[in-house]
Specification:
The chain has about 240 residues and is of the alpha+beta class. The chain contains seven helices and five strands. One of its GO terms (biological process) is response to antibiotic.
Length: about 240
């Protein structure tokens, strides 16, 4: 956790320099790409219709989806439709320009699926330190995108209330740690929660990653979010 204005690190615990799959926290940079490119129009357009071949594994994701629903419900197929419309060249140029983690969008070995799977326990990796750096550049408007891209991404970010009177904007992510081969380690689920928190004149950026045996992968991100919301006031100092 760091102070957004000064960049001063307030808390740094655990392997913050180790890279992991961003999972659905990658929807934040994807939203920036979508609005900057013009593919995403506003909070509720485009509304893309669900198609059976999307094979959504979660029942609530089998619905027509707009940008607000996309981030709130963390709908994977909407992300994949967005990257397909971006195309590999534009997608890669954004990831490189953002300096996002290891910038590797090759996807799973031999599958040529990076355009739609790179961030899903695959080739793209980012550390908590790098998550903080990306969030800082986003809030400082230093990603090289349009002012509308920043504003619209902020407008659709899920918002929460934390103890101590903090308002939190953040995105969860759920997945697995990976073996040296890159394959998911189904015995080690991980959960992310990244974003920023505001109270009066203060703004903090944070990245929390939890990986525990016994954690259910589908609840990993939400569990990490709830623990951060509970701990935020203490970590912030007041």
């Amino acid at each position: 956790m760091a102070d957004a204005a000064s960049g001063k690190v307030l808390v740094r615990q655990g392997p913050c320099d180790h890279r992991f799959s961003p999972c659905s926290t990658f929807k934040l940079p994807l939203a920036v790409m979508g609005y900057d490119s013009g593919i995403l129009e506003d909070a509720h357009h485009p509304l893309w219709k669900y198609q059976p071949h999307f094979n959504a594994g979660i029942q609530r994701h089998r619905q027509d989806t707009d940008p607000t629903i996309w981030l709130k419900e963390s709908v994977v197929w909407y992300s994949q439709e967005l990257t397909r419309k971006l195309g590999e060249e534009r997608f890669k140029s954004y990831v490189t320009a953002f300096g996002y983690g290891n910038e590797d969008i090759s996807g799973n070995p031999g599958k040529k699926d990076g355009l739609t799977h790179a961030w899903l326990t695959s080739s793209l990796q980012i550390s908590p330190d790098e998550q903080i750096a990306f969030l800082q550049r986003f809030l400082d408007r230093k990603l090289g995108v349009s002012s509308r891209a920043y504003a619209m991404t902020e407008a659709i970010m899920p918002q929460f209330s934390a103890e101590g009177g903090w308002t939190v904007m953040g995105k969860t992510g759920s997945g697995w740690r990976q073996h040296a081969s890159g394959a998911p380690d189904k015995d080690q689920p991980l959960g992310w929660f990244v974003g920023w928190a505001e109270k009066a004149s203060r703004r903090l950026v944070f990245a929390r990653l939890e990986s525990k045996h016994g954690m259910k992968v589908m609840q990993a991100g939400s569990s990490t979010r709830e623990s951060l919301l509970k701990d935020l006031a203490t970590l912030a100092g007041k």
